[in-house]
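User: Structure tokens for both sequences below?

Assistant:
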Amino acid sequence: VEAVHLIADGKAPRIPQPTEGATYEGIQKKENAEISWDQPAAALHNWIRGHDKVPGAWTRIDGQVVTFYGSSLLDASVPTGQELVIKGASRPGLVTKNGLVVFGNDGKMVLVRNLQFEDGKMIPASKYFSADETTTLELTEEEKKMAEDIR
């Protein structure tokens, strides 16, 4: 009760909280989440996982920013896949049926499951080379009439 009265009267002591021992980290910004490729696979995995979902760990592929989501360490033989040149990486990544395999400077592997492009489009990493394929929707005469009625 005494503390409430001190606050109400504007006489409560104000003691600044010490920063020593504080564990709060400020909000991460996208520009600070770029992947540094000169690291072992475990560090790459932790960087990607630590920035998953916000702001998202990113790198440049074919001149555009690509954000990586859903990483895991891969402890197996090098899988077969289509090579993907990643800016700054010492070795090209591999687009496999399970996702994008990237390599740390220790030769070990990290599997990335999803990729997001600058335009916001997210795809499974395994579909990187088929992402540009588009299909056209063909409507039957009945569907065209229904679309016109709706319009």
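Moving on to the next sequence.
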Amino acid sequence: EDFLNLIFKAMMKDSLNSSHPVSSAVQSSEQIQEMFDAVSYIKGASLLLMLKHYLSKEVFQAGIEIYLHNHKYGSARSDDLWDSMNEITNGTLDVKKLMKTWILHKGFPLVTVVRKGKIISLQQEKFLYRVEPENWTSDARLL
């Protein structure tokens, strides 16, 4: 329950225009410090959990083991982790391409499902939290 609360707080922060991607190039030590916040840690953890469930626990763990073995006593980039996952899936899935759509962009997708009889349509768009004008009194603005 506590982790879910953290995820929702991070999602709220990530839905603001002031958010940032989980991974991005930095030019200064100040930019590095700015990157280590709830979006980076909690969204990053959520993305890894999502990937673990998508690949299966066994495949994900094997990919992590390859990654740790290949980069022990050294430094690594996020692409190195995705390459390890690609290695364990034998190239059947482009994990790097999949994960870059999540880590290189701020925010998250909102999927809207509409059902009309037997027809189901889906629409995906970037979710942005919009603060209503100050004179708005309904609690609906908090949803």
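User: Anything stand out in the second?

Assistant: The radius of gyration is 18 Å.
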